[in-house]
């Protein structure tokens, strides 16, 4: 076997091993919350969709196919698979990542759409969405000097 072939096989194996190691386990959400920006009107709107549901934003048709979040960390990120069409023409079909909206973005002169977070099944708690307990009151020492 030639050295070139051996190096090619070794390189391919390294690429395959690296791709598997880089994948992160994800759990399915029940839907997603997106944000839409209309640049001409200078308005934003939050859009709540369930998996498989479609809605209109301006003259865009937005379909959420699926939303996933990192396993065991629902507030860590959101991966939303969206299909966006305008007047029957495909504008976007792919995954949007909440923590990196510019990585795979909708390219449109008027509208901007990005993923905020996944909605969660009823049996999953998101620690970031729970209310924090109020801090304990501070006790004053009445004999201490006041500045």
Task: Describe the structure in your own words.
The chain is mainly beta and 147 residues long. It has a domain at 46-119: Roll (pyruvate carboxylase f1077a mutant fold). It is 14% helix and 41% strand. The protein contains 1 helix and 8 strands; from the N terminus they run αββββββββ. The strands form 2 sheets. Strands 1, 4, 5, 6 and 7 form a 5-stranded antiparallel beta sheet that branches. The longest helix has 20 residues, at 3-22. The chain is elongated, with a radius of gyration of 23 Å. It starts with a helix and ends in a 28-residue tail after the last strand. The model is unreliable at 1-21 (pLDDT under 50).
- Could you estimate the helical fraction of the residues in percent? 10-25%
Ends: how far apart?
84 Å
Strands, count: 8
Q: Which structural class matches the secondary elements?
A: mainly beta
Q: Quickly count the helices.
A: 1
- The helix-strand sequence is HEEEEEEEE
- What is the CATH top level name of the domain at 46-119? Alpha Beta
Q: Indicate the radius of gyration in whole angstroms.
A: 23 Å
How much strand content do the residues show?
35-45%
Give the overall form.
elongated
Q: Sheet bearing the most strands, described?
A: 5 strands, antiparallel
Query: What is the CATH topology classification name of the domain at 46-119?
Result: pyruvate carboxylase f1077a mutant fold
Average pLDDT works out at 80
Instruction: Specify the CATH architecture of the domain at 46-119.
Output: Roll
Uncertain residue ranges: 1-21
């Amino acid at each position: 076997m030639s050295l070139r072939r051996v190096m090619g096989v070794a390189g391919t194996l390294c690429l395959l091993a690296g791709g598997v190691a880089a994948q992160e386990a994800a759990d399915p959400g029940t839907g997603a919350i997106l944000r839409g920006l209309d640049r001409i009107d200078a308005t934003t709107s939050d859009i709540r969709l369930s998996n498989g549901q479609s809605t209109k934003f301006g003259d865009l048709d937005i379909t959420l196919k699926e939303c996933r979040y990192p396993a065991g960390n629902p507030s860590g990120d959101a991966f939303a698979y969206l299909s966006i069409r305008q007047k029957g023409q495909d504008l976007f079909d792919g995954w949007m990542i909440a923590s990196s909206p510019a990585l795979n973005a909708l390219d449109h002169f008027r509208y901007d759409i990005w993923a905020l977070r996944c909605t969660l099944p009823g049996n999953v708690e998101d620690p970031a969405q729970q209310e924090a307990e109020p801090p304990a009151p501070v006790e004053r020492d009445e004999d201490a000097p006041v500045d």
